[in-house]
Amino acid sequence: SAKEAGRSCFKFYRDSMNATAAIRLQLEQDLRTALKSGEIVPFYQPQICAETGNIVSVEALVRWLPAQGGIIPPDEFIPIAEETGLINDLGLLVLQHSCKQAKQWLDQGHRIRVAVNVSAHQFRQLDFTQVVEKTLKECNLPPSLLELELTESVIMSDAEENIKRLIELKNLGVTLAVDDFGTGYSSLSYLKKFPIDILKIDRAFMCDVNSAPDDIAIVEAILALAKSLKLGVIAEGIEEAEQIDILKSSKNLLLQGYLFSRPLAAEKITPLLNQNFTHFMQN
Ligand code: C2E
Ligand code: MG
Ligand code: MG
Ligand code: MG
User: Can you give the pTM of this predicted structure?
Assistant: First the structure.
């Protein structure tokens, strides 16, 4: 079946991550082709306002849908894309799809922001800001409906250079989020210097938040930090309503995780946009 074919393909690529150069070269070529043939697309995962239960934004998460069926997750091909520089084409493709999709939702009456992951490689391109600006213009998307997710390590890799880049991006009017917050650098002073809007609490801290006191302490510290710096917070990896309890008192809080929805193809997201998720939050 197509599903089985997809699974073996999936296995093939996973194994190839530590396989010979020849197989990796094959994967690179397949990825190059897939980027042109439309097999690479973003899925979208809802981010829900904790106060209202409405979807306010979605995260674009890239998927490879091979012609023979199945779904290859990003961990299977992002590393190769990074190594080969294909990540720039991939990133642009996801950015373009996402902006087009957000504009389409807007035209249908849904004011949904779309969050796009930006890799180190992309962020370091000298014309990255212009690429973002051009894409927003081409799609006729209000910049406020685009969010860019950067990891701490990308931001901190060259703090002085990056601060300029972030200010440029901020001046476009886009929203800037720190992805996987808490897993990278320990220096927090950059949060004050950099024009960041949102901290995304890494899934690792949310996992055991009801059993592990250490994780609770970290999550509470991040919430307090966000509050005093007036930053928004997104908690990812919410799988159970119990995980939300610890977060409840915070303002400007968005929730993301399998409890609400897995990442889905755009056409499967559209019918969810009118839905209210409050009942998912009660345990
Ligand atoms: P990320 O940006 O931290 O994305 C969150 C990951 O957590 C996604 O995995 C998402 O599917 C997963 N997730 C969300 N809710 C839950 C949950 O409740 N439980 C569990 N177990 N997992 C959950 P995914 O889609 O496999 O993406 C993995 C990573 O690949 C992303 O981590 C991001 O670093 C990277 N990635 C994905 N799309 C892109 C892209 O377009 N460009 C770049 N540069 N990287 C991407
Ligand atoms: Mg992300
Ligand atoms: Mg993340
Ligand atoms: Mg992550």
Answer: 0.93
